[in-house]
Amino acid sequence: MADCLIWRDLSMKQVYDFYDQKTPDDAIKFLGASFENPDGLDGTSSDKRAILLDFYYYVLAFAKEHRFPPEKASAFFSIMKATHVHVTESPFPRFDSDYAFFKDLLLKHCINRPPFSQQVFTFSEMKQISEYATNTYFRHYLMYKYAFTKQIKLEFKISNAYCTPTPSLERLNGGAVEYGLEISVDAPDGDAMNVASEQLVSSTEQSSTDSDSMNPQVQVLTDIATAAPEEEPTATAAASQLQNSDEEPKEEKTLEQSKHDIASEELKNFVMSTLAPRLDEMKAALLAKLSNQESELNARIKKLEGEEEKALAVQNDKGKKEPAKPKAKK
Fold first, then answer.
1. 241-252, pLDDT tens digit by residue?
2. pLDDT tens digits, residue range 85-105?
């Protein structure tokens, strides 16, 4: 029969060798030597290999405890192994279809209908195997999914169209332009400078005419006195220009810093007001769903077991009610 799993993964000698192991550690080492490269694993996945060997050990330990002969132990082991391979093919939970796959394999080894199925287990053994798989493998269904399937990760990125990069400062007509605001810098008035220069020239000329009647010593003192005011306007203008140049970058830095602070505060408020409540809701919904997952799985398992028992009971009743064929008369 094509679907019969007897001797597919374990031979008669391997089953007897496992039954002869004295301790669980020796039995796991034996299984590790028998399955050097399990399906879907490589040499680097030591954690997965340890979980899988532990799963194999308890399956065969159950067969040994219930004194299954080698053909039944081999078929039971292959059924559980094929179920695990089918479950771990997809990272998405599909409990109903996975449990139906296990039940279909088990029923094919409990009913004698060649070439479609071959009876290996009795009704009581089938019930024991079903209870064992429900209380062990399918109870930890999500754990095996997590350990043996690829993880799906979601990257969440935010793009805010209202936040634009800070433009660089530009010099324009003696002022600074930033975000369309013009900052003017005070400059000396041209008329006042002309008047001051004319007064300075006239005072210098008057002092020079009066100095002709003085002696040489007084002339020298007068020259020094008249030369000093000539330097004062230049020093004052330089000091004012230097002060204006120092104040201008400070104003620019203050405005730039205030714009950055406003933009960062607006972005923070947007994220907190828009995304934070939504993320909290998603987290709470996920935790609630995970907490109810185990109870839902148990309910489904009990429902499927009830349907299976009813189907088998109906089938047995039909077999009992069939009338015996009359004997041929001699």
1. 555 555 555 556
2. 999 998 888 999 999 999 999
How many other C-beta atoms can be found within 10 angstroms of the C-beta atom of residue 4? 16
Return d(Cα 81, Cα 39) in angstroms, integer: 10
User: Order of strands, edge to edge, in the sheet holding 170-172?
Assistant: 170-172, 175-178, 181-183
| Rounded distance between C-alpha atoms, residue 202 and residue 204, angstroms | 5
Token pair, residue 258, equals: 């205030």
